[in-house]
Specification:
Helix Hairpins, 5-stranded antiparallel β-sheet, 5-stranded mixed β-sheet
């Protein structure tokens, strides 16, 4: 159990860190892509507003971009832009910045077409990778998209309507695309490396994180073990004294009641100690191939007599030749617990169906215990909790509480999980249905 707790702690912490890193890396990359795309968009807007050319650096910029009309918007006496803190003159704050080198660093070309879409001007002076014929081909592809902007390969384009026709302006974004990809790979690699390092630290520190729980758990386990052994001695004395009383005088209902309670307490102690050993994984089930059908019938069939004595109908149905690899004694105990539970808590005059079948694939065996229950518990799955009692389902019509100590189903669940199986409980149509699914031999 300690190993499972530590493993669960490590997994939860590791996945939490991974989720945070994915969010952080994702946001950083989204912001980077948005910034790069914003720069590309602003460059295209400048080119579009200035008929495919960059304006002089000193030209004034208003809210709509850079507009020609003489130096600084036709006002020759206006002072030049103030140098930035790094000593460079430029326009723009965070993100895009226009400098003297912008026109020389930007790779672009444009094609102007008339109303009949025939190229009239082809400008490829600012790019070396595209010829005039290729530029016309790109313009044709942009026209075929029917959009006013977008991407064609590594080029981002915008279409400008003019009085003479259309202008197709293309911006080379290959460097930006590689920058985005490299940034994504580098950030992902760093994030992955950091996550692995954090996981190693979590694994190392997990011992200290679960140490308080381990100490409390060990104290609880020792208490259960010590108490179990301490209680056995007075129970043995009480049983011996009861037998002496029966030898001296005739057995009575009082001595029978004492013996029943002793048997009940012995069963409780045995199951408590068994669960404690299962939790600390000191019990290693001995797996071997056995006939599940025979074991099922041997355990379930004898319960017909106590069921009939209580006025109940018990039907036992088992599919033949079902075999599995497991601890036969433990599986027999599961069948006994489910059958006894169904007989004990079935409504008066009701029916019980205990069945063993094989799935269609043949890979699993399914054990079902179904009994009538007019007042099922609100949360049937809680029946597997230790010492849990659902009052409505644990009383007879006359108000007498039924026997049992609320731990048998916990043992059945522990045994099933040790066999990598699943056990469940549900209430429907006035019945309680327990289902155990175990791996079988095809």
């Amino acid at each position: 159990m300690i190993k499972r707790l530590r493993r669960r702690f490590v997994l939860i912490a590791a996945f939490s860190v991974l989720a945070v890193e994915l969010v952080v890396v994702g946001l950083i990359n989204i912001m980077n892509i948005r910034q790069i795309n914003g720069t590309e968009k602003q460059l295209l807007e400048i080119l579009c507003d200035n008929d495919g050319e960059f304006p002089e650096f000193g030209m004034m910029r208003d809210q709509n971009g850079f507009k020609p009309g003489g130096r600084f918007g036709g006002m020759d006496d206006e002072p030049p832009p103030v140098p930035d803190d790094d000593g460079r003159r430029g326009f723009g704050g965070f993100g895009f910045r226009m400098t003297e080198e912008t026109r020389f660093k930007t790779r672009y070309f444009y094609v102007m077409c008339d109303r009949q879409l025939s190229p009239t001007v082809i400008n490829t002076v600012h790019i070396a990778a595209v010829t005039s014929d290729q530029a016309v081909s790109y313009a044709q592809k942009a026209h075929n998209t029917g959009k006013s902007g977008g991407y064609i390969g590594d080029y981002r384009f915008v279409v400008k309507e003019t009085q003479y026709g259309k202008m197709y302006i293309f911006l080379d974004c290959s460097d930006d695309i590689r920058t985005e990809q490299n940034f994504l790979l580098i950030s992902a690699a760093i994030s992955l490396g950091g996550w692995v390092l954090v996981c190693l630290l979590i694994i190392i520190c997990s011992r200290f994180a679960v140490k308080p729980f381990i100490e409390n758990y060990e104290k609880q386990r020792m208490f259960i073990t010590d108490a179990g052994h301490e209680i056995k001695t007075p129970l043995a004395i009480i049983q011996a004294n009861t037998e002496v009383i029966e030898m001296i005088s005739e057995p009575s209902e009082w001595t029978e009641s004492i013996k029943n309670q002793i048997e009940r307490l012995n069963g409780l102690i045995a199951n408590l100690l068994r669960l404690s050993r299962m939790d600390e994984e000191s019990i290693k089930p001995v797996f071997a191939e056995f006939d599940l059908t025979d074991a099922f019938i041997d355990i379930a069939q004898p319960f017909k007599t106590p069921a009939e004595n209580k006025g109940l109908t018990l039907n036992v149905d088992a599919q033949e030749n079902i075999r599995m690899n497991g601890d036969e004694a433990s599986i027999r105990q599961v069948v006994s617990i489910l059958t006894e539970n169904a007989v004990k808590y079935c409504d008066k005059g009701g029916s019980i169906d205990i069945s063993l079948t094989k799935t269609a694939s043949g890979r699993h065996a399914v054990i079902k215990a179904v009994n009538d229950c007019a007042q099922p518990p609100e949360d049937p799955e809680r029946l597997f909790d230790r010492f849990y009692r659902a009052d409505a389902s644990r009383k007879r019509e006359d108000g007498e509480k039924k026997s049992g100590y609320g731990i048998g189903l916990s043992v059945a669940k522990a045994v099933t999980e040790n066999h990598k199986g699943k056990i469940s409980c549900k209430a429907e149509n006035g019945k309680i249905i327990f289902t155990v699914r175990l791996r079988s031999i095809p």
